Structures are given as structure tokens and as C-alpha cells.
Amino acid sequence: MSDVTEREKGRNLPPWVPLAARHYLAHTEDGLSIRALARATNSHPSTILRQVRRYEGRRDDPLIDAALKALADQSGSRPTKTKEQTDEDGLSQERIDQEAKRILRRLCEPRAVLAVAREMETAVVVRENDEGESLRTAVVDREIAQAMALKAWIQCPDDTGRIRRYFITNAGRAALRTLTAADENRAQGFNDNPGHDDANVTKWEFPKDVDGMRSRARYYAVESPLIGLSRRRDKDGLPFLSAELVKAGESLREDFELAQIASGAATDCARIIALSLAREGVDGVPPAAIAARDRLAAAMTDLGPGLGDVALRCCCLLEGLEVTEKQLGWSARSGKVVLRIALQRLKLHYDETRGKYAPMIG
Predict the structure, then answer these.
(1) If 16 and its partner were Cys, which of 22, 93, 164, 295 is the partner (CB 3.0–4.6 Å)?
(2) Concatenated DSSP letters for 170-228?
(3) Which of 177, 178, 186 is nearest to 108 (CA)?
């Protein structure tokens, strides 16, 4: 036991390294047996064995292999370092978390991947648009990508080819929700906000300004509720929300974002319709914003109360279904069915008013 403890101290691994990766390095680099590690960590030997086999099987991934090699270089008989000294020499948990929030959000976007080439020092996040073009949305340091892969936040399903494409995993989405919730708590002074505790959205408001007017509420989405529902399957094995329904919801959100210029922070169906009918705030507003407000009001009028409210909250305000159900007084797990009905009606509205191809934004 004491031999294991001394070797554990001598590796000088950063605090962010997962426990399973530590066990793998202790077994492969330091020569500790599976049973010795199990006794030292109060675990079953089969648990340690599965961890070692899992990381050995992941070494075909170039990011995993490079990360383990770099960590193995930190093993050996070098003097034990403090956490601050280790962070200065390499990555810190704070830097990984800060970068991960930016990168994982981008990877939550539809058709987004992290592309890594062998000869490149940095990785990039690219997303394919509706025209099939690849748009670069973020640049990632290679060491950050290695740490994210080691933590199983990203994964490459195809290990062939010169360029590896990584996708966000469920563990990555869970980590992003945790990091975003921590930011929300700091922004709110660690006060609970039960009205906006859904895992898919974080909401906060700026303090009142000198004129007594509250600044516009900002919604910071980890992932659109539509994207999450589109990954679910119904009893027939088909996506709960088809690509056409998701596209209709995204079109509604585009009009909502443009219409905010014309109508301020109108966040309910009835007010959007009333503002459009009253033609308020037209002076000095771009024509594209006025047109977007009219399209948004027409869609809300067609959907009507109920369907319009759930579409507005989930598609435009990016509220989660649990929050929407509470706000509208609905029973639990009923929101997704009503949302699908609203999107079906919305798609029919767009087909009738726009035809097959929607007009260009602006």
C-alpha cells in the first residue's frame, strides 16, 4: 500500500486527469498491478481492469494517444509539485473549463464537428450549412482538444483518414450543462432560480439602469430544445421531430431575432400580434426587421394561443420543455406532444405562405 502511495505521488499528474486515466498510467507506466491499484483505491480489481482496457483500446485515437504520452512524460521520479506548479507547467482545470464552454457550445450546433489533422497544431470546429458549405466557427488548441478527448467529452467514431472528425458525446453535453449552471450561479450570486432551472437553457437579466428600465433579458442556450427532441425516437423508430419540423422552428426563431429590433423584448404571443397590428416602433427601424415582425405575427396568429405560446417559448426563447410546462400550467411530459403539433401547424403555415423556398433573410 505504501509503495503504491509513493508512486502515486511521483507521477505529478495534473488534477484534471480522469481517475481512470491515472489508473491506466499507473499500471502501464509505473508497473503497478491491477490488484495493487484496487487495494489502494478501495475498488474491485475488475473495475480497474475495465478502466485499463478501455484506455488501451482508445489509443488508436491520435488525441488520446498524444495526451497519454504527454502525461507519461510527467511520470517518474521528479519531485512532487504543488497544484499551482503543475498548472503553470501545463493545462489547468480553469483553462480547460473556460475553453470547453466555448467549444462544446459550438459542437452542439447541427452538423458541427471538431476536425483534427495530423500535421496541424490546432484543431477547428466546422459546421455544414444548408448549402453544403463548411463554415469554421472556432479554433481549438491541440492540448485542449487532447484533454477533452481524454475526458470523453468528444469522440471520433471513424479512426481512418487523414482528418479526424470528433463529435460531442453525452458526457460532453453533461459537462457543458454543469459548467453553464456554475456560471449561472455566479451571475446570480448563488441564488436559486426555480423558474429557469432547466438543463437546456440559462437565463439572466442585467440590473436596472439609471433610468429605472430593466435591460433586455438574454437567453444563453446550451442546445436548442428542438435539436434534443430531433434525436429522440418514437415507437416506430423514427425521429420524434423530423428535419422539416426543426427547420420550421429555426425559421420562426430567425424572424423572432430580427423582429426584436422592431418590437423590443416582446416575449409572448399576444403582445407580438398586438405590436404588429399597432405598428409600434416603426421609425428608424430597418425594413427587414419590420418584415420579420409581420411574418412572426402572422405565424403567431395562425398558431393561436397555446400552440403559439409553446412554439415561441421553445423555438425562440429556447426554454426547455419542463420550464414551458410549468409556466403554462400543463401536465408533465405533455409539452413535447403539443410542441410537435405546433411545429406541424407552423410548417403548414410556411408552406402556404412561402412555398417550397423561404425568402432570403433581410
Answers:
(1) 93
(2) HHHHHHHHHHHHHHHHHHTTT---GGG--TTEEEE-PPB-TTSPBPPPEEEESS-HHHH
(3) 177
